[in-house]
Amino acid sequence: DSGVTQTPKHLITATGQRVTLRCSPRSGDLSVYWYQQSLDQGLQFLIQYYNGEERAKGNILERFSAQQFPDLHSELNLSSLELGDSALYFCASSTRDRNTGELFFGEGSRLTVL
Amino acid sequence: KNQVEQSPQSLIILEGKNCTLQCNYTVSPFSNLRWYKQDTGRGPVSLTIMTFSENTKSNGRYTATLDADTKQSSLHITASQLSDSASYICVVSEVNYQLIWGAGTKLIIKP
Questions:
Q1: In angstroms, what separates the C-alpha of B35 from chain A's closest C-alpha?
Q2: Of B34, B5, B105, B101, which Cα lies nearest the Cα of A45?
Q3: Sign of CA dihedral A84, B107, A108, A70
Q4: E strands along A1-99, which residues?
Q5: Do A103 and B46 touch (CB under 8 A)?
Q6: Where are the alpha helices (H) located in B1-111, listed in sequence order?
Q7: Which chain B residue has its CA at the smallest distance from A40's CA?
Q8: What's the rounded Cα separation, in Å, for the pair B33 and A33?
Q9: Could B98 and A56 be called an inter-chain contact, meaning their C-beta atoms sit closer than 8 Å?
């Protein structure tokens, strides 16, 4: 158990809908990262927050947004969903900023868009 | 463009055998190189993190090596077990600390 909690574990929705994925980092970790992994593909970095502030952006679509709250949990919002958004979405946390420390990954949220 | 390439794409070995997975990268300079293990449908788990000055690092039956001159890393698994069946991912951190992820090697251990 990495200590990173992601909810929901599974989510099935329709095209055009909006969903919110939630991540609670390990106790004491200030950095939260979001990754997308499509079927049989590598991990794609989406976005990173450190202590409530956006730190780095990867290949995140404009339809996607995220935030980190004062209690350090983070939410990833996916809107106007398309079939191609079906994927595993992972959250990772770290004590440090800037990828200098070890990343601890949650078990992921599996999103299926029908 | 900075890249991380892993080989082989997939590998099948018998339980108890050793194997070596390769990682070649073009990221230069880099901050650190990591190996992760990802079970199917689960989150990646860190195996090793090496800075550019380290040549080898072990974690139980896993030993990672790094040659910064040739920009190559390898992950050696000794006495494989069925639970080693997973994808193994090489990740290189740029000096701006962005992580460049490899596509992974899918390892299958057969009894």
A1: 11
A2: B101
A3: negative
A4: 5-7, 10-13, 19-24, 31-37, 44-50, 53-57, 64-68, 74-78, 87-94
A5: yes
A6: none
A7: B103
A8: 18
A9: yes
| Angle made by CA atoms A101, A87, A48, in degrees to the nearest 5 | 30
User: Rounded to whole angstroms, how far apart are CA atoms A103 and B6?
Assistant: 20
| Cross-chain residue pair A99–B42, CB shorter than 8 Å | no
Which two structure tokens, joined as six digits, stand for A38?
Answer: 């499509």
Q: Which residues of B touch A2 (CB under 8 A)?
A: 43, 45
Render pLDDT for B40-56 as a digit per residue (tens, 0 to 9). 989 999 999 998 889 99
Query: Is the confidence at residue B8, as pLDDT, over 90?
Result: yes
pLDDT at A42: 85
| Residue B18 in contact with partner chain A when CB distance is under 8 A | no
Contact partners, residue A5, CB within 8 Å, separation at least 6: A23, A24, A106
